[in-house]
Amino acid sequence: xxxxxxxxxxxxxxxxxxxxxxxxxxxxxxxxxxxxxxxxxxxxxxxxxxxxxxxxxxxxxxxxxxxxxxxxxxxxxxxxxxxxxxxxxxxxxxxxxxxxxxxxxxxxxxxxxxxxxxxxxxxxxxxxxxxxxxxxxxxxxxxxxxxxxxxxxxxxxxxxxxxxxxxxxxxxxxxxxxxxxxxxxxxxxxxxxxxxxxxxxxxxxxx
Length: 207
Known about the structure:
By secondary structure, the chain is of the alpha+beta class. Helices cover 34% and strands 27% of the residues.
């Protein structure tokens, strides 16, 4: 009888400990660049809901502030969070994790280092509509070897880039951008790629 009571007590304690551990949550805060509309926020939330167990998702499209909670026993890493933001089509600027045990991890964002050699600064028209377009265009331009800085203005539709003249040129950057689905002054996006863009990104195509 005593053995049965002791065994029941031990099992109960293990179950309580397990349940308590599962209830512990890590808190995440990410500053996201490129959230320009509710559709953008929906896309980001949808991508993160692939992570089973995520809770308390909040997205402020005005500030780009994205917060959520995740079970601490799953030990979601900073790199996974940043990667998930990028997979959704956005740029993570800064991130902070407050673990259930009180420990804090921070990522201050990537510092863009200059490239060696003479830099050339150019601007070119790139078609697009929203913050999601901005993130996609900047990411595509920045992916070109030799580019040190890229910025797109959704009002003027102008992409400004700084790049090492000996390594690349403006046309190569335009080609990279058009590959992402956006027409530029001198290059056109593939029709299929344009068709796959989210609804809010369906810009009026350049002639």
